[in-house]
Design a protein that fits this description.
mainly alpha, about 300 residues, 2 strands
Length: about 300
């Protein structure tokens, strides 16, 4: 980044030492991450990043490839959404689910303690999309369908959360880079989650298919029969949406609920968490266990139909 060495011998020695460390680093991204991540600062506002932005064209391809995901330096590409692309070929944003795949989380992020798993999974997904399309975190979250009114992503807030938990943001970035490397050379074809999200935008189980599903529920002993009306059809639709898109139920569409009068919407909203808990808890009542099995089978077929282009 300099045409001539500094005149001060101490500064020159420091520069040569830094250059030697960069050339000898086995993991250049890991080495650079310590320069980029200044506590309390956004990555794009640290002094090192500002210097790099001025001189990146004179850096080697290896240096650029290591620095690009850390500094969020992207080149513009065409398209109606104005996405930017990384300097190198990479996974695409459509390959990222809004709530990081459980397998990815368990293999990479589960050892990180002090941060709630839902925060890790959500934030990792948003950051992976940001690496793929550029721009601020809020734009990446919006791409994933995460409602800004419920969750906002701010890099400085992210850093403060890590600091309160006694963790280094560089640890999260290192693990994220490892997952990104796997996605660039996947062991299996990557799923187009954006296609699934688009296919199920404002989706709900049709009444006739819901009636067919609940007709398959095994009979329960006793006179009490759990309700299977539109409220449960809405909750069942959310469960299927989560299974297919790998998103969070908080951000699922609720078109059946939206059609109800305001007082009914408020009543449904009050019971939403209880029904969801019963659908996902492993030791739930028999009715919900039987219903969950049928919904999971339906979701698997629906995902296959969307992936193949057959629709539903």
């Amino acid at each position: 980044m300099r045409d001539v060495p500094p005149r001060d011998p101490i500064a020159c020695a420091g520069l040569l030492r830094a250059a030697h460390a960069l050339l000898e680093a086995d993991d250049l991204s890991e080495h650079l991450s310590h320069l980029v991540h200044t506590p309390g600062e956004r990555p794009t506002r640290t002094p090192w990043v500002r210097i790099y932005a001025r001189h990146e064209n004179s850096c080697s391809p290896r240096f650029q490839n290591a620095a690009e995901p850390l500094t969020r330096t992207y080149r513009k590409i065409g398209g109606p959404q104005g996405f930017r692309a990384p300097l190198r070929d990479d996974y695409r944003p459509e390959h990222i689910p809004a709530y990081l795949e459980l397998d990815w989380y368990e293999r990479y992020f589960a050892p990180i303690t002090g941060i709630a798993p839902k925060v890790l999974r959500r934030t990792a997904a948003v950051r992976l999309v940001q690496w793929a399309i550029g721009g601020p975190l809020d734009e990446a979250a919006a791409y994933l369908g995460i409602t800004p009114s419920l969750v906002r992503f701010r890099t400085n807030t992210d850093f403060k959360r890590w600091e309160r938990a006694g963790r280094s943001p560089a640890e999260f970035e290192r693990v994220l880079r490892e997952l990104g490397a796997e996605l660039r050379a996947p062991r299996r074809p990557l799923i187009d989650y954006q296609r699934r999200r688009e296919a199920l935008r404002d989706w709900a189980l049709p009444p006739d298919e819901w009636d067919a599903l609940v007709s398959e529920l095994p009979p329960l002993p006793g006179p009490i029969r759990p309700p299977v009306g539109d409220r449960k059809r809405q909750d069942a639709s959310v469960y299927i949406w989560v299974q297919v898109t790998q998103g969070e139920h908080l951000f699922a569409p609720r078109p059946i609920e939206a059609e109800q009068p305001q007082d009914v919407q408020r009543e449904w909203a009050l019971r939403r968490n209880t029904t969801w808990y019963n659908l996902v808890r492993p030791d739930t009542f028999r009715h919900y266990a039987d219903l969950r099995k049928l919904l999971a089978e339906y979701a698997q077929q629906l995902a296959r139909d969307i992936d193949s282009g057959a629709g539903r």
